[in-house]
Here is the input.
Amino acid sequence: MLLKDVTLLFVEDNRDTQQQIKMIFEDNVKAFYQAFDGEEGFHLFYQKNPDIIITDINMLKMTGLELLSEIQKIDKHKPVIMMSAYNDKENILEAVNNGANGYITKPIDLEALYDRLSHIAAGIHEKRSQQNMCKQTLEKFYKLAHYDTLTNIPNRMMFDIELIKSIEAANDQRNKLALFFIDLDYFKEINDTYGHEAGDFVLKHIVANISKIIPEDAVLARRSGDEFLLLIRDYTDVTSLKQLAQSILDVTVKEIAWKEEIVSVSCSIGISLFDEGIRDHETLINLADKAMYHAKRSGKATYAFFDG
Here is the structure.
């Protein structure tokens, strides 16, 4: 039942009518709110933001027409059903012309009211379904644009965003930043020997291992192919970075079982440190890249800091 998914505010100064409507609808909607005059109705609308409002027209303190006007200043699409005596055609016409979602006459025809509420609830349900579909679509495109589809870690675009924000914060707050450029050794040979399926398996395996040992606020991203970037924010000292680099080597320099084969893997790591002389994220990445190539030339499966 679609009414079970909506909240309802009933604004009426007649307590007998209030009690009658409450008994009928309280258990048939998600939440039922009562207001005994227009002002109270507006306060409840503002606090609870009900999905549907039913309001009498003729009330003290604030009329139903005034309540409708105040509600539309906040949400012009909020469904509002007006109630009035059968012979109060002038007010009913004004309410409809001012954007009410219909009206019911007194004494209340409960079947007609139920049908009207069900129709509005169906529209709300359809709108929510469309919004959820749009949200899911946006989330899907966001993930495709910002995350690597193979490893589910941030891609280069997402990493650049995080790195730029971190550099801005470091400039303002003098935080320490370190960048690790991680490149797998002999990865082309793995793909050539065992195929790209094996290469993908190795990449996911290594990412999973590294993700387990890096700090919680670190950002690990796939730059391209077998290259990864790791951002370390506010590290303690260089010794802690050396320990982390060695831990990454330890979980990466392994023999990985692939079907009936044993694949040997290792990596080389270049590390650059942010300082006031570095003004952009590309410079920090390039310096780490240079340090990584120094590690490669030193025999691979090791790390090196950029030292100028």
